[in-house]
Amino acid sequence: MSDTGPGSSVPPASSGGRGAGLRPAGAAAGQGREGPLVGGASAVLARRAAVFVALAAAIGVYYGTHQRWFGLPLWWDIAWLCFLLIPAVFGLVYLTLPLWRAPALRLLITAVGFGALAAGLQWAEAGPVATFAKLAAMTAIGWCFLRFFEELSWVVLVAVIVPWVDSYSVWRGPTKTIVTEKPEVFSALSFTFPVPGQDGGAKLGLPDLLFFALFLGASARFGLRPFWTWLCLTASLGGTMALATAFDVGGLPALPLLCLGFLVPNADLLWRAVRRKTPRQT
Questions:
Q1: pLDDT digits (tens, 9 = 90+) for 60-72
Q2: Residue 123 pLDDT > 70, yes or no?
Q3: Cα–Cα dist 63/57, whole Å
Q4: What's the Rg (C-alpha) of the chain?
Q5: Which residues are CB-neighbours of 125 under 8 A, at least 6 positions away?
Q6: Nearest to residue 129, comparing CAs of 75, 56, 200?
Q7: pLDDT tens across 26-45, in order?
Q8: How would you classify residue 249: left for phi > 0, otherwise alpha for psi between -120 and 50, otherwise beta?
Q9: What integer is the mean pLDDT of 94-123?
Q10: Residue 184, pLDDT score
Q11: Domain ranges of the chain
């Protein structure tokens, strides 16, 4: 459902190979060479956490004060969203990408908790804060769903099918009905990207947030290209908004370009994975 208007993760080490199981003489199992690696991983996570806090603070200031900012012409508003705000918001998801490895139950509890928080904040008319609770909830759900994808080909299949479902929903199905007849419901079930100097902004349906997290998490889980996937996913959302503005339509489905944002930067790796699977199945 969508209506769009104006770290890489290190794969687990293999158990064999050159140097497997080497450790200094006299060292017990689990000691030795692992120490510096664990320390390095902790330093990376600490840097990610620091960047996350700084980025979240900057975004929070913007969401709290954007109505008092300078106004921009229409296409400058689009550029602001495409090149600054959307990458910044989804930069939060990228920085938390290592959490896709969290246990499914923990992710599910996180999703339920943030979902309840979003509902309460929405009811209390704390829209900007509720918006980010929705982002956290849908990200956790997306990474929880990722556990059910045992093969990379399953993710590819989803990326091929869901654009057609989303297109039907936006143009003829339930999304169109909600947007045209119950806009307040769509506002409650969407994420808002406000433009500077105005009250309104572009809206993105919650399922789009879920698929963003799913595709980004899949790129980490299956050893693809997480950073380039993130870059193309964010660019696809900006591209959808630009197309909606250029063609002067109330909204376009976001999933067609979002799925391309997953498939295109990983096309060669996806093809190799499919070819490796084919001999086993035949």
A1: 999 999 999 998 9
A2: yes
A3: 10
A4: 21
A5: none
A6: 56
A7: 344 334 444 455 566 788 88
A8: beta
A9: 96
A10: 81
A11: 59-281
User: Worst-scoring range by mean pLDDT, 11-20, 74-83, 137-146, 215-224?
Assistant: 11-20
Query: Residues for the chain: how many in total?
Result: 282
3-state secondary structure the chain: CCCCCCCCCCCCCCCCCCCCCCCCCCCCCCCCCHHHHHHHHHHHHHHHHHHHHHHHHHHHHHHHHHHHCCCCCHHHHHHHHHHHHHHHHHHHHHHCHHHHHCCHHHHHHHHHHHHHHHHHHHHCCCHHHHHHHHHHHHHHHHHHHHHHCCCHHHHHHHHHHHHHHHHHHHHCCHHHHHHHHCHHHHHHCEEEEECCCCCCEEEEEHHHHHHHHHHHHHHHHCCCCHHHHHHHHHHHHHHHHHHHHHCCCCCCCCHHHHHHHHHCCCHHHHHHHHHHHHHHHC
What CA–CA distance (Å, rounded) separates 98 from 93? Answer: 10
What is the Cα–Cα distance from 118 to 107, expressed in whole angstroms? 16
- Token pair, residue 262, equals 């997953």
Which residues face 190 on adjacent strands?
205
Residue with the two structure tokens 């380039």: 228
pLDDT of amino acid 207: 94
- Beta-carbon contacts of 173 under 8 Å, excluding residues fewer than 6 positions away, are none
Burial group, residue 87, by CB count within 10 angstroms (0-12, 13-18, 19+): middle
Q: Who has greater pLDDT, 119 or 14?
A: 119
Residue 124 has a CB neighbour count (10 Å cut-off) of 10
